Amino acid sequence: MVEAEFILPRTIRSFKDLERFVWQVVRQAVAEAMEAACRGLDEVVKGPGPGWESVGYQRRTVMGLGGVEYRLVRRVYRRRAADGSWEYRCPLDKALGLPAEERFSPLVQERAVALATRMSFRKAAQVLQDEGIPVSAQTVHQWVQEAGAARESQERAATERIAATGELPASEGRSATAVVVEVDGVWLALQRAKAKRWEFKVGVMHEGWVAEDPRGRRFRLQGKQAWGGDLETEPFWERGFVRFTSRYTRGQVQRLVGNSDGAAWAQAGREWLGIEEWHLDPFHRNEALERVLGWETRLLRRAQKAARRGDWAALEGVLEQAKVHPDRAVPVEAIEQVKAYLAAHREGLVDWRRMGRPLPRVARSLGAAEPTIRHLINARMKHIGGGWSRRGAHHMILLRCLGHEQRLESWLAEWTAGVWQATSCAPVLQRLARHIRRRVVEGAVQQRLQAHVPLLSHPEARRSALGDELRRRLSPRVWWAATV
């Protein structure tokens, strides 16, 4: 590893300088301990077997969190393949589970993907660069696409397994007073595509609301699940069906409620999930009424009240009155279009809390799809970056759904585990980890700190209260615990 340019003790004039100096010491000590331990491991790992010849040593660099650069020197073997070409193998890489030609550690990849789901690829790369990790925005984008493709493969495999075997996934056996399924579409700008915009489907499944503060001013969804992406109607509802059946037992759900803007693809969920009770989303209902009655507040309020009660006759009367109102500010045709839209969904106009059926402990007005889209899609995919490919947007939505459910970090750990395979040398790696810890905590760091901060080793300092305090604050054990 290249020797770090340490801040000299005489230039340390603030706690900031001191912290930077100690971190440089620890970082180099960790890298050197790792490299030394791996050199020892390379000597004891068995070769690939008969037919392989050693071609000497090669150096490989792997960048870890915090900008720690591991420069591993290991033996390389080769042999002739059946087609006459050379194939190469490195026993140490196999023992450590290192993928071929990978330059960054799995923890770096996990952090990069997690950052990219919250900010642009360029900003995510800049954050990592500020931490000493020289990664480009293109590399971060590539990792996001690889992770998204892996997630898509999982979700598609789950639905294909049901279609092939006819067996439902194992259920958690969860019961609920009510399960609410709310869906909607969101349009995103595309780049390098014939279509300028494309609709992506989003669904959220929950069991009601939970107050987040004692006053009951903020609420969050209980038992929330989210899914969606660039999906046709059938694949979209297949994935919703998998989520429902893998969590609930149908007979233990007292009430199953659907909610949407009335689109045909959305209402297909009634058949897929067996939803008998489907409501027109209050947001879209009120938006339609405001579009044609916003010019007259009294008519608008009467229409909204009638819609909440599910009183179609009263609502129709208000719309007819608006058509002949002397101050009418919208065309009659617009009122007729809204009337036809509401008439097509008249059974779903009534507020779901007015139907005399079981309700969760906290029951609020339906409409979780719109805020879900704002947090899940718009916050990352509209406000940051101007355009997406359909494939790239689909992968990002899959990862954002995991984050929306607080499962992204655990899923990313599983994803990298599938690439950075656990090996049969696990006991050896555990001994290697103990060796590195002992070398860093008890050896290299202590020596470097004493070399660069003579106060720690001065006899007078050992006897002074200031010396005791400094040794305690600069203890390698303390810094290791804070940085690991």
UniProtKB/TrEMBL annotation:
It comes from the Bacteria. InterPro entries: UPF0236. It holds the Pfam family UPF0236. Belongs to the UPF0236 family. NCBIfam families: transpos_ISLre2. This is ISLre2 family transposase. It comes from Carboxydichorda subterranea.
